Amino acid sequence: MRPVVCIVGRPNVGKSTLFNRIVGSRIAITEDRPGVTRDRIYAEAEWLNNYFILIDTGGIEPYSDDIILSQIKRQAEVAIDTADIILFVVDGLDGVTSTDREIANLLRKSGKKVILVCNKVDTPKTPDIVYEFYELGFGEPTVVSAGQSLGLGDLLDKVIENFPEGKDTEYEEGVIKVSIIGKPNVGKSSLINNVLGEDRVIVSNIPGTTRDAIDTPFTYREDKYVFIDTAGVRRKRNVSENVERYSVIRTLTAIERSDISILMIDATEGVTEQDAKIAGYAHERGKGLIIAVNKWDLIEKANNTYREFEKNIRNKLSFVIYAPIIFVSAKTGKRVDKLLQLIKKVYNSYTQKISTGVLNDIINEAVLLSPPPTDKGKSLKIYYGTQIGVKPPKFAIFINNAKLLHFSYERYIENQIRSHFGYEGTPIRFQFREKGD
């Protein structure tokens, strides 16, 4: 387990900007208005070869009755409970506020190590107003400017000095990364909460509640996973706010970071054009893909309901015919355990390797069964093939003339390989090279 560092504070004090500076990339959404970061956001960070997990949280407003803001407070409390060290961020230009005092009371009750971070101090000389923050009871404030990257080294020195003993800070390999993708309000966050058995992600029936991509590590049957929950991708004409635009980018980034994407489809709506576009993102980037039809418990069943729904999916998403389909209910937990088993199965396909000898036996057999078509008296010759990569599986096939290769014959070769080795849930990539390339 790596040390966990959590950033908390009231809205609009620069928590997400600080998070991004420490992590070194623009992971959290930052915008100059309160309430933009709604969920906890996990990221791996490093300082002087010390690795740790950094958590960003939404701004805490202790007295708010708003349903979203009250859940933000709850999420921050969970993050505080998870953390080894807490960075309590305050605004060095505003001075101490009543909300700062309430958050300080909450942090004292946690019993965790708290480092007070006085942000937005852009001048070399510390303003007198900063000394007001001693009253919060966390000792001398660490003065920084996240926006200007000032004072971050001193802050991180303090962080690593306070790492608990016995924590392994080495970077962890071999984790299966799974992005949960789909339109807004199809149940992505509910699925993660069901798997983990806790209210890890804010869930409501307001579309677009999840705005950031959120990393959730967990273990299942001794395998280590990270679920990457994403904001739902809206149609472009519905993407009006800057925050929503960032969320679309975040979804694409989450797909890029993952090994496998789970496309969640709302059973009550069926497959839509937007679902096809989202599946296309994962396919183009060569990711493993599972199609999870959620809210299946709300569908009135008849004899052929399952087959007709599956047939409709295959017709509209024919370009990802390799993707398995599973019908689930994230709310009730139906078939969620089977979904986890399917993830491992697809990951095994995604990383499967075939020896050159066995691969060429399959190719030679395929050519004997169905020789390549001729073109003006010239015929395609396949010399041999070899696997050159995984994630997804990649094959180099050496031929005499690339111009003689028709896409239908390439698809035939792919189908023959799939029929022998499965490759369920993963695309296959080919590089056809002329002899001598």
From TrEMBL:
The protein's UniProt keywords, in alphabetical order, are:
GTP-binding, Hydrolase, Nucleotide-binding, Repeat, Ribosome biogenesis
Source organism's superkingdom? Answer: Bacteria
In this chain, GTP 1 is annotated as bound at: 9-16, 56-60, 119-122
GO MF entry, a single one: ribosome binding
Q: Which SUPFAM superfamilies match?
A: P-loop containing nucleoside triphosphate hydrolases
CDD domains referenced in this protein's UniProt entry, alphabetically: EngA1, EngA2
Domain (EngA-type G) spans 3-167, 176-351
Checking Gene3D superfamilies in the record gives:
3.30.300.20, P-loop containing nucleotide triphosphate hydrolases
| Pfam families assigned | KH_dom-like, MMR_HSR1
Positions that bind GTP 2: 182-189, 229-233, 294-297
Biological process according to GO: ribosome biogenesis
What function does this protein fulfil? GTPase that plays an essential role in the late steps of ribosome biogenesis.
The record ties this protein, via HAMAP family, to: GTPase_Der
Family, similarity comment: Belongs to the TRAFAC class TrmE-Era-EngA-EngB-Septin-like GTPase superfamily. EngA (Der) GTPase family.
Subunit structure, as described in the record: Associates with the 50S ribosomal subunit.
Name the UniProt record assigns to this protein: GTPase Der
Q: What organism does the UniProt record list as the source?
A: Anaerosalibacter massiliensis
